[in-house]
Amino acid sequence: IPKQIINKMKNTITITLLSIILSFSSAYSQEVGKYAVSVGISPFGGGINLSHNMNERTSVNIGFGGAPEGDIPDAIKPEIDGFSDNYTHTAKSAWMGIFVSHQPLDQFNWLRVNAGFAVGSIENTILDGNEAYYADYNENPVSYFGLNIGKPPYKGLVYGLDIGALFSSGADFSHNDNGDLDKFNALQDGVPGLTNVLPNFQLTVGYCF
């Protein structure tokens, strides 16, 4: 079978499955669930979210999660002045937070504002040859603000995409004895992912009851 036909078949199957899932989801009653449990994935690792729906428009959410130490992919690794192309960047995180989400507009029940506070840590290690640099976020708490697009808290399957940012006092930077001062200063000059404001997006899927 030609590769183009196989790709078309894969696309058709994917679209069909997504349509079935969405249709199945929309078939649920419009009754608001009191609680929800969901799992999510974000740049800061996986997480579990526990929600208490005060009403159709307002929910209180507790989330916790993290990520074991792992390498930042080269595709999203920023260029840093003075660093070689072969430098490595590893990171790990652990966090817990409490957030309030609210639907502000009557006609858009799929849109919510999400805000809250979190505690935890994000630890970054950047290696370039025998030079080691560290950028650690350990000051707590940090604040969060974002927008959520997804299904209202009706009983059954729920899902959403949260796009926002963490606001902190910034990372604590340090280096080992082999660290270069110019490189160290470049790290502190606003490298994406190592600033006071950290962008975040999270995909969640769960069940409301």
Write up what this structure looks like.
The chain is mainly beta. A hairpin with a 2-residue loop joins β1 (35-42) and β2 (45-53). It contains 2 helices and 10 strands, in the order αβββββββββαβ. An 8-stranded antiparallel β-barrel has the order 1-2-3-4-5-7-8-10. The mean pLDDT is 89. The protein has helices spanning 3-26, 181-187, and strands spanning 35-42, 45-53, 58-71, 88-102, 111-128, 131-137, 142-150, 156-167, 172-175, 197-208.
Task: Please outline the helices and strands.
Elements: H1 3-26, E1 35-42, E2 45-53, E3 58-71, E4 88-102, E5 111-128, E6 131-137, E7 142-150, E8 156-167, E9 172-175, H2 181-187, E10 197-208
Antiparallel strand pairs: 1-2, 1-10, 2-3, 3-4, 4-5, 5-6, 5-7, 6-9, 7-8, 8-10
Order of helices and strands: HEEEEEEEEEHE
Helix content: 10-25%
How many strand units?
Answer: 10
Strand content: over 45%
How far apart the termini lie comes to 46 Å
Strands of the widest sheet, in order across it, are: 1-2-3-4-5-7-8-10
- What class, by secondary structure content? mainly beta
State Rg. 21 Å
Described by the principal axes of the CA atoms, the overall outline is elongated
Number of helices: 2
Major sheet attributes = 8 strands, antiparallel, barrel
Average pLDDT works out at 89
Spans with pLDDT under 50 lasting ≥5 residues? none
